[in-house]
Design goal:
It is built from seven helices and eleven strands. With about 230 residues, the chain is α/β, with parallel strands linked by helices. It comes from Geosporobacter subterraneus DSM 17957.
Amino acid sequence: MNSAIILAAGKGARMKAELNKQYLVLKDKPIIAHTLTVFENCSLIDEIILVINPEEKEICKKRILERFKYKKITQLVSGGSERQESVHNGLNAVDQRAEIVLIHDGARPLVTSKIIERCVQGAKAYGAVSAGVPIKETIKIMTKDRFVQYTPKREDVWITQTPQAFRIDIIREAHDFAIRHEVLGTDDAMLVEHMGAKVKMVEGDYENLKITTPEDLIAAEAILGYKRRI
Ligand SMILES: Nc1ccn([C@@H]2O[C@H](COP(=O)(O)OP(=O)(O)OP(=O)(O)O)[C@@H](O)[C@H]2O)c(=O)n1
Ligand SMILES: C[C@](O)(CO)[C@H](O)COP(=O)(O)O
């Protein structure tokens, strides 16, 4: 059984909108509804745990759950103040029969079934995977006073995305390890790395962008418009 934890409990502060960005409309529906629709329609996903801000329960019910009637959402879970805590709460709600858990940012609405498929297959083969794409530009590692320290070889640098997918025992152990060692990660793969285990990168998509600032919304609208024409 494959479970997906979809994270929507952030503040969306960098979007500078009145509303949590998850509920902003992208083309024809809220951002989070795009994300949930992809997971709902993916045959590899058996259950969805939706993690939300408890203060947004009503808006989530009215604008998302009542309108779209997703059948695979088994639990609505309260998130925490950090992304990591939100994931941890989601992990506690996963069905006991789950073997593979996918963790995905609700703020990545352009995820596809193909990416989900590569993540599930990768997690079965390697235990821990992240979707990602090779960097297209040149990266500089900086000192605190903003001098260039060095330039890593471009072929060694990838951008990590979500979904990230794990065997359930591995991701539970990684979260417990992080709590014991006070590790706070910006993604879940990082917690597995801290534990000393390997994470395999599987092919994501440049279009699988994270909606973080207003210009990301413009880019996502353009990608959706372009997709509709082809
Ligand atoms: N405490 C948190 C923080 C983040 N997230 C989720 O994790 C994903 C990635 O986080 P990000 O894009 O940074 O979202 P926000 O934290 O909402 O944005 P910001 O940092 O601008 O406030 C988002 O889907 C967000 O809702 C979450 O569930 N719980
Ligand atoms: C998990 C993530 O989307 C991978 O790119 C990213 O690390 C989330 O970071 P944020 O600072 O919470 O936006």
